[in-house]
Amino acid sequence: MSNRIALLLIVLCGCSSTQASQIEIPAAGRPMWEQCRSAMDAWCHAQSQGDLTLNRDCEMNTTREYSRLGDEAARRSYLTTHRCTL
Length: 86
Fold this sequence. Notes:
By secondary structure, the chain is mainly alpha-helical. 69% of the residues lie in helices and 0% in strands. It is globular, with a radius of gyration of 15 Å. The protein starts with a helix and ends in a 6-residue tail after the last helix.
């Protein structure tokens, strides 16, 4: 019984880690976002110092913040401040 509960908790935690991917990036910003995705992930990893919860939160927050930017200049600035070279 306890193995089933542990498995259920693992599955639920895994499902919650996909929240960042559920945030819609506007079409105009997708090419730059995809180009910089690995740099953004590395930035979040450095910020979280290995803490998986902080890393997931960082990824979700940066995705949400980026999705709200209204023009290319703002998106470019945001990405370059997060280690992306465009």
